[in-house]
Amino acid sequence: MNKDVDKLKEKASGFPNEPGVYLFRDVKGKVIYIGKALNLKKRVQSYFVKKANPERKIIAILHNARNIDFVVTQSEMEALVLESTLIKRHKPRYNTRLKDDKGYPYLKITIKDPFPQALFTRKIINDGARYYGPLSSASVRAALYTIRHTFRLRDCKLDLTKKYYRACLDYQIKKCMGPCIGAVTQREYNKVVKDVIAFLEGKSDKVLKRLKEDMSKASENQEYEKAAFLRDQIGNLEKFIADQKIVPQGLHTEDFIALTRKGGHAVATIVMVRSGKFMGRENFILLAPADDTDREVLGGFFRQYYNLNQTIPGRINIPFNLDDEPILIEWLREKRGKRVIIKVPDRGERRRLLELAHQNAVLHLDEHLDKESTAKQVLGSALEEIRNQLGLMRLPKRIECYDISNLGRDNINRTAVASRVVFIDGNPAKEHYRRFRIKTIEGQDDYAMMEEVLVRRLKKYSNDTPDGEDKIDLIIVDGGKGHLSVARKVVKMLRLTDFDIAALAKREEELFRPGKSASVILPRSSPELFLVQRIRDEAHRFAIEYQRQLRSRQLKTSVLDEIPGLGAKRKEQLIRKFKSVERIAKMSPHELAQTPGIGHELAEAIIEKLNPNG
Predict the structure, then answer these.
(1) CA distance linking residue 236 with residue 446, whole number of Å
(2) Beta strand 315-317 with 67-72: parallel, antiparallel or unpaired?
(3) pLDDT band at 123; cut points 50, 70, 90
(4) Which of 18, 185, 219, 327 could be 227's S-S partner, Cβ–Cβ 3.0 to 4.6 Å?
(5) CATH topology of domain 391-540
(6) Quick one: pLDDT at residue 489?
């Protein structure tokens, strides 16, 4: 048992008797479990009560925990929302959570804009827009296709406060109403936006009725072009409605949630009914602790899903009752602004739809596990081939890859950076990624920079590092024989012998190993080459991303900010082209004026500002 349990127990005794959220952290400070409580002190102290048959999950949490934190909230409902938000942020291993590395997609309607758009997004921000989701990428893109072809909302980034004299191709091929050239008034355009919202909420019959009425009026007024457009809209909408399934009477706006599990894998499926029509289904992969009950897993998903969702139905059908149902109902009612019912249907059409959702969940989980199993086999085979082809000491379970990103001849502005990415069992382990800002090298010397980074990484590494996630099996440096020599020098200097090193040259995708004059070229289109390339490309991406952040910070605080007429885009263009403010300062106005977007007058102002002493 963890020797720090007594310390945790003592700390819990000082928790307040208030509602809130508690967080267990491991030895590295990483959150491993998040829970909510009506009374923080009583709830957390219950973990330390000795029981005849303690839950295995509680045993695991206490075994790995080294600290407990808490956040006090105003109410249990606020704690419920905060718990879901923190689970999404920290991804604790002992909580059920949505498997959403990048965040789930949403369909966004920018209703606050004068001429709103329908957009694909993965982030909800408080901007007054209307969001539909979370959904699958396919569902969002299908909805966008229908919206753009049927309702012709604009799909451009034009500033519509300005007047344009020519419309783009979308207007010519009837995929946009042309607000940029005044082909549609704001009032007419927003009338269509209301139709889009009604369509997304399942009220397509009402939209169809209104469109037919407008078409008749346009025809009577001899507005034949408008009537033709409305006719095409009606045709597209009728086709869409024909593809929808009408659900039995009595069902209006409801969700049907089913769950299926195998080991630590789970799928929750939601069948959505809106305005009496079947609007489709969404499947969500869950990471669920194997020791959790179905009630705990479904409850965790339920809270996270509706915390992410802005559109709450009037009734939610579930396969069994959940813990804290009264507080869930109150939370959803407050979020929706109307009454919400949570029920377990035991017969009739609702039970049939719940069983349909369960069948879909089972099929989706089987498909997911088959794909995962195949991917593991391919990765395992690729790692074995890498070991054989490179003659490694052991299977490279943990691979670290290093890349240098340097803008130009100098590092005066400290924009030279390096990255370390880590792949464990062939998959990226992003929690182990690291970024390095080059500290000691001022010239453009990639070898010296690589040496600095490797020394900083390996000076505390030991040959006796036990097997586990921190034990290195293979280090790959991005570059050729010169970079390999640097890696060998560092490893020899630090007397490290417990892992292999290799260098990957971009041009021919050659791998170089110590003591071998000939390079190793992995078979083209092979899984092992694809994996090595993916690792190298990820290191390059991570380094470039960091460098851009540094450049952006420098641009914001640069002396260039003080020059009237020089905006952010031109400023970034100058730095990208000339690498540093110092180099720009040495140029003549005539030379600088050759840069697109920088006229002679602005060039003189820039040089004068950078050379105050003439």
Answers:
(1) 59
(2) unpaired
(3) confident
(4) 219
(5) Nucleotidyltransferase; domain 5 (3.30.420)
(6) 94
Could you give the CA distance from residue 552 to residue 572 in angstroms, rounded to a whole number? 8
By three-state DSSP, how is residue 321 classified? Answer: coil
Do β-strands 106-109 and 130-132 pair in parallel, antiparallel, or remain unpaired?
antiparallel
Model pLDDT for residues 7-36, shown as the tens digit of each residue: 888 888 899 999 999 999 998 889 999 999
342 and 325 Cβ atoms separated by less than 8 Å? yes
> CA–CA separation, 299 vs 294, rounded Å?
8
413 has a pLDDT exceeding 70:
no
pTM of the full structure: 0.68
CATH class of the domain comprising 5-95: alpha beta
Annotate 180-211 with DSSP letters as a single string: GGTSS-HHHHHHHHHHHHHHHTT-HHHHHHHH
Q: Note the pLDDT tens digit of each residue in 540-553.
A: 999 888 877 776 66
**Burial track 382-403 (b if 16+ CB lie within 10 A, e otherwise):** bbebbbebbebeeebbbbbbbb
The letter for the amino acid at 60 is A
In which element (H, E) is residue 246 found? strand 245-246
Distance CA 533, CA 501 (A): 16
Q: Please tell me the predicted confidence (pLDDT) of residue 553.
A: 62
Distance between CA 252 and CA 304 in Å, rounded? 24
* Residue 412 pLDDT > 80: no
Cα 258 from Cα 271, distance rounded (Å):
9
Q: Which CATH number fits domain 254-363: 3.30.420, 1.20.58, 3.90.1070, 1.10.3470?
A: 3.30.420
For residue 294, count CB atoms less than 10 angstroms from its CB and return exposed for 0-12, middle for 13-18, buried for 19 or more: middle
Cis amide leading into 589 (omega within 30):
no
Phi-psi region of 269 (alpha: psi -120 to 50; beta: other; left: phi over 0): beta
d(CA 486, CA 418): 15
Q: Which helix (H) or strand (E) holds 96?
A: none
Closest CA to 309 of 98, 480, 470, 118: 98
